[in-house]
UniProtKB/TrEMBL annotation:
It comes from Brevibacillus panacihumi W25. Residues 406-577 form the VWFA domain. Coiled coil: none annotated. Residues 861-874, 882-895, 926-939 have a biased composition (Basic and acidic residues). SUPFAM superfamilies: Class I glutamine amidotransferase-like, vWA-like. It comes from the Bacteria. Residues 854-951 are annotated as: Disordered. This is VWFA domain-containing protein.
Amino acid sequence: MVINFLQPLFLLLIPAILVVVQWWRKQKQMAKRKKWTIAIMRSLLFSLLVLVLAGMQLNFPVQGKTIVFVVDRSASMKDDPRVTAFMKAAVQQKAAEDEYAVVVVGGTAAVDQPLTQRNQVQQLGVEINRHATDLSEGIRLAAAMIPSQARGKLVLLTDGIQTQGDAEKETKLVKERGIEVEAVSFQQEQGDEVVLTALQVPQQLYSGEEYAISVEVESTLATQATLMLYEGNREAGKQVVQVEKGKNRYAFTQKATEEGFHRFRVEIEAQRDTNQANNQATAYTQVAGTPTVMVVEGHQGAASNLVSALEAGQMKVEVKDISTLPKELDAYKQYASLILADVSATQLNQADMERMRTAVRDLGMGLIMTGGSDSFGMGGWFQTPIEEALPVQMDLKNKEELPSLGLILVIDKSGSMSDYGDGYDKMELAKEAAIRSTTMLQAQDQIGVIAFDGSPWEVVSPQPVDNLAEIHRQIGSIQADGGTDIFPALELAFQKMKTLQTKRKHIILLTDGQSGDSGQYETLIEQITGEQITLSTVALGEDADRELLERMAEWGKGRYYFASDAASIPQIFSNETVMASRTFIVDKLQVPKVTGAGNWTSLREPLPPLRAYIATTPKQTAEVSLLSIDEDPILARWQYGLGRTVAWTSDLEGKWAAEWVGWAGNSRLWNEIVAWTLPQIEDGVWKTQTQLEGGNGKVTVTLPGEAAMPQELEAVVLNQLMDRQVIRLRPTAPNVLEGVFPASDPGSYLIQITEKAGGQAVASQTTGLTVSYSPEYGLQDDGEQQLRNWLLAGGGALISDTQAVFGNDLPEKWEIQKVSEWLLMLAALLLPLDVAVRRLQLPEMWWARMGRRQKTGNTAADKETVWTRMEQKRMNTRKKTREQTGEELWQHEVASEVQSETPKPQSTHAQTSSRQPVPPTAQAKQVEEDQVKKPDETLNRLLAAKKRRGK
């Protein structure tokens, strides 16, 4: 143990001692023992306070070692079993006080096992991004786990191949903290490899232009291979080539025949190759030409009048069935605008909606939604990505005189609902659907929720929707378990619904299984409809009793839905909630009012009347060009991200707007509307290049020589999951700007580059980068040599023996124990004692007694010896007095003391005895015996007699 001080204030002990000495010299009248006591207490008190001010610490040497294993679990390591075996063997050799932890690293790092002193290593189980290796991230996390006072060391178990980060730099930083770094090399066998390293396509093309596609291949051997070129999913070329060892370059010649944004993919099949994952590459190009409008119909003929009007205006239109919608985001880039004609939300899945929303916001595609019985709120678009993009909201805000709705949701909570359908938790989606339905209701509506398995459970008793938070909490408490019995749950819903005093009453039943009890469904549903209650059913998945549910919906005068995709449940419930209220269709013959917003020239002419529309609520910044007599939007537009969107709340078929279909200005109006949604931003004149560097994508923009530097240039990067990342491009050279983004995961990265001036987009360009395979599968340099190089530069060491992990000596570390608080507490306890000793006036005899006790101890034998000596001294004194004053004086003095000090008799016997004459000599002898028996009492009486005599 070592004593340490944070401040040199311990030197104050010298003046503190001088103060005590000075005080000692001044106290001449104080009893010696009291003086010593006060001096000692003050010295202790001053010493404690000085040590507190000096920051006294106790330092103890740290005995144990703290080792953190950093395990490379990237794809190139192939889950090498030697790694776990090495750790187990090393841990078996640690001392009892040693501790260890395990950190796994790939593209990211995570703690697999926290610090422990156990001598058993668990199997690695934490999943990380295995498409890259960032050893620096693992070193940083592992070093953070080692306490500052610990004797720490990092042991890296890796093949030495890092695709991103700077392990050398991080090792230097760790060494500066006093943490040692060692590494164990686990090299993997490398077979014959043929790798497609690059695919280059011109960035911009014109229709009819011939161009070359360049392909780069790198190989570790000479072999024959076949190159195949695909445009989208169509084969566009094929070559049989001879691949030489090293780098190879090949070319395809193509002609741009189709306008729009195109993706090319090249694949190679070699006769001798080990890894097939690195045998493809992808690139993008843009072929300029006439923009194409994609039209999606909810049912056949829903947009036939619109298509005719657009084609009359020389627009290029492509009508698509919902089943043929693009499944890749880059495919939407081929279209300038998208029209959804009376399409229900239940006809699209969530991924389709996300792709459409992203294409509008980030790629500048236009979007138009037209009305009909399956559109807007009637189509269940409430709280969807499409609603976010449109200029109107689906729910009705600030509406009065809406009929009240009583809605009861009957939800299957059997054990099968806990299964995942298409990657979705069915029970969670059902609860989300129920919650979404509650948020669509108005203040005058009431909601109830019943969950069932083998028996029904009233989750939410029918009540107004004025406490949504509590209703949502109750819905969220539903857990899947048990069997399936529909009849009791439906019967309970009927009984609860009869008690509601609402104008409309509706039940929605959701199940994914077969009912355990057939029940008298038709009889029960007849009673339900007899109370003016409607019933709709939802069959979830192929295992549901679809035939029974369809008949139940027919008997209940409602609608039947078959949800093959669990993700569509929220949209179905939203649609049913709207359909039950029937408040969204406004059936009034009227001529819409022109507001002047939009400046479409066709709206300056006399307008025909409308018969019906879907009521919506305009968003705050939307421009409403046409209003109904109820102040509902008929035609509205707004800017959403880079794209523009329009909402037309009446239909296109002629059921609600027959006069508009026959109106002379209809074709011109719709050409103006669609033209407004087309991209209005100019194409950037710069040249863009994308490339993969390690685990990062790099975007390089080169401006023409005469072009001015843009005020702001940013790139929106969208990966295959449509995760969005915005990066700012910064100048790196004259007329050159660059930006970097993470790109370790294989897949396509669509990049939208936008120039802004004054916060507004003025030019844009779309490009892309495809990571066909993980950088872990590329051709790698000698990993062990790389490992040796950065360990040498960073101050680390390469080991191979398990004994070296815990056996090597580490720099000494000291554990610091601060004692200032304890010293301060002790000083606080001594202070009142010091005050008490100085202030209280204790008899001098006490101090003498305390001094003798300190010298002789506190045992009973010691006390008896002390009093015996005192009595002997007193007797000798009395003997001398008797000799000097005579026997009579002594007897008289003793008799007087006995008479004055002896208490009065307490009994008759005692009084009689006291009156008997006692010889003086005998009386004195009795007094001496009593004094021997009771030394304290005798001494006190003699002292009292002495004082009286002195007076």
